[in-house]
Amino acid sequence: MNKHFAANFFNLLIIIVIGIAGLVYWSKAEFYRDGPLQQALFIEVPRGGNVVALSKELEEQGAVRHGAIMRLGSDYLEKTNKLKYGNYEIPAHASIADILDIVTKGGRSSFRYVARFSVKVTGPANLTLRERSTTGADPVVLASFAMGEELPEAYAKLKAAKAAVSYRVSVAEGATSWQIVEALNAADFLTGDALDVPDEGSLAPDTVEVRAGSARSDILAKMTKAQTAILAEAWANRADDLPFKSPQEALILASIVEKETGVKSERGEVAGVFVNRLNKGMKLQTDPTVIYGLTEGKAPLGRGLRRSELAKKTAYNTYIIPALPPGPIANPGRKAIEAVMKPTKTENLFFVADGTGGHAFAASLNEHNANVAKWRKIEAERRKAAE
User: Fold this and answer.
1) For 199-226, how does the pLDDT look when each residue is reduced to its tens digit (9 = 90+)?
2) Domain boundaries, the chain
3) Domain 31-105 has CATH 1.10.287.70
4) What sections of the chain are H helices per DSSP?
5) Is the pTM of this model over 0.90?
């Protein structure tokens, strides 16, 4: 009987070992396998962001199939605590390994990645593509590149072959008007005079399909028309008792919400906090407005704010001015605008990063100070780990 039990146990152990080996082999293959993303995706790694929150967001956005594999891989490669704050572009079909490499290397300014240009073949062309053959009738993404990048070899081949193509211009939510105009002016497949910078917040961040030779001014006009419509619709459906005298004031706050949180599910809560503060006559005290006052939206600050900068008087320093700044600080997307028009009902007046990529909210200053202390401890632990 003991021999029979031992034999069964040994067989079970072999099965378990084989199963684990198979799981490891599959996970490794999945880690380096081309991802499911069909077109470039813009993401933001917020200050204090971590792999857990990022993997969940990327899974929701369809950029990775299994967030758990991303988390396990980052632990194994010791990249879990190496995320770099900033805005990033995730190329189509990027593997989990590619994505981790992008968000941990850093050094990619939001200026370069506010707009992404994708080239699509609309007819047969004798070119080798990563995705699939171009002999089919459906459009295929051939090349993708951002302003400031060296043009990919596939794009050069495309121009030489004079194939029938269309272009996709993708603009990230939270980009400034200056950044968007710089990107459009740099696109060699567009025509027309260099664009003047439109009012901040007046452009809808979106993806626009264009043909070679399209006028830059036409693209800007489409984005302006779209943002006007989005703002008008949201204003017409806004909640009661909001502290806004006009749609423009709501747009200003929407731009702040867009820059404050990279977690989409938090937009309503963040908007609710700011609405509460405005209703109580409290200062907003938000870092993105201070940064805009320093950079005018022309470049990322690239570092944390100094105490002297928080005390510097500018029209956008909400640590000093007791109200909204005079204008938007970026071009918010539809969801941020809708969050401000219908904010989450909450008693909270404060929030701070919580170490998961999101924020800890508080209704009292004492509770907020406790959350800040926790965050400072997490920051210190991460600095120590990095060293």
Assistant:
1) 999 999 887 777 778 898 999 999 999 9
2) 31-105, 115-232, 239-386
3) no
4) 2-32, 51-60, 67-76, 96-105, 153-161, 177-186, 216-236, 247-260, 267-279, 287-295, 307-310, 334-341, 365-386
5) no
